[in-house]
Amino acid sequence: MIELIDISYAYSGISALKNINIHVEKGEAVALMGANGSGKSTLLKIINGLISPDSGVYKFDKEEITAKKLREAKFAKLFHQRIGFVFQNSDTQLFCADVYDEVAFGPRQMGLSESEVEQRVNDCLTLLSIEAFKHRQPYHLSGGEKRKVAIACVLALNPEVLVMDEPMNGLDPRTQRWLVEFMVKLNQAGKTLLISTHNLELVQEISQRAILFDENHSIIADMPTDILLMEIELLKKVNLVDEYYHRHEGEHHAHFHNHNYNL
Ligand code: ADP
Ligand code: MG
Predict the structure, then answer these.
(1) 155, 213, 230: which is closest to 186 by C-alpha?
(2) Of all atoms in ligand 1, which is nearest to the CA of residue 88?
(3) Which ligand 1 atom is the nearest neighbour of the CA of 17?
(4) If we measure between CA atoms, which residue out of 38, 147, 137 comes closest to residue 86?
(5) Is 68 strand, coil or helix?
(6) Spelled out in words, what is the top-level CATH class assigned to the domain 2-253?
(7) Distance from residue 35's CA to the centre of ligand 2 (Å)
(8) 22, 103, 147, 202: which one has the fewest Cβ atoms less than 10 Å from its Cβ?
(9) How far is CA 202 from the centre of its chain?
């Protein structure tokens, strides 16, 4: 479904991704992990066609995606319909006067009739349990509510692939738990998921496979999530476990979610 071959990217000379190779099959749920600045958001932007790599090849469903193709309105529209992106900061994604219009925006762009649009919007609002916000201003919602609206907007296009950049950030534990279960359901329903996250406690439940970035913007591990979570030295090396390690000091031992860790 998604194939990245030797992708590199730099922001005016500042390297953000180096020689990235990833192959994601249809229906997989994959977590991207790594410290701040390791390149996760940049990679997700490339996958969503928001930026184009300096070198390497990106293929979506076997077709090469290029900046030139994405400039063709027809191609871009179809591509963005098949792959949805939930941004790290929901504020950058929400711009309409009320939640209904926000969720309706994509389906209207697709050229659906107003009654089909209404059906889709209502289905998505129900799916996310946010019917009550229908006529609220997105701007005034809480962080968790905004995230749900942003997800509804993306799902309204019924994409095959869902890409989420740090979806747990800024959410309270109960909303995080809800989101984890929601993502598992989406994956079970056949959606391919690509999620960047720092949340080691929840990542195991969301994805069977994890890809780890180091601070040099390269991939240093691509393996089953439960195995990666036991690679404590590797996680320490990329600054993903220090915080936990200290927080649990003084207790009998440090652990995430199971008791397999020897710390
Ligand atoms: P992550 O999402 O893993 O935190 P990013 O992909 O945001 O990492 O960033 C990768 C690297 O690129 C970092 O060194 C970051 O400072 C740099 N970077 C990200 N966005 C920009 C930008 N718009 N301009 C310049 N440098 C950027
Ligand atoms: Mg990021």
Answers:
(1) 155
(2) 2
(3) 10
(4) 147
(5) helix
(6) alpha beta
(7) 9
(8) 22
(9) 14
Nearest-angstrom CA–CA distance, 187 and 120: 20
Strands 55-60 and 63-64: antiparallel
Q: Is the CB of 73 under 6 A from ligand 1?
A: no
Query: pLDDT, tens digit, for every residue of 19-50?
Result: 999 999 999 999 999 989 999 999 999 999 99
Global pTM value? 0.89
Alpha helices by DSSP H, listed for 12-111, are 40-47, 67-70, 73-82, 99-109
Q: Ligand 2 centre and the CA of 83: distance in Å?
A: 18
> Is residue 92 lining ligand 1, measured as CB closer than 6 Å?
no
% of the chain exceeding 70 in pLDDT = 92
Q: Is 37's C-beta closer than 6 angstroms to any atom of ligand 1? A: yes
* Mean pLDDT, the chain, integer: 89
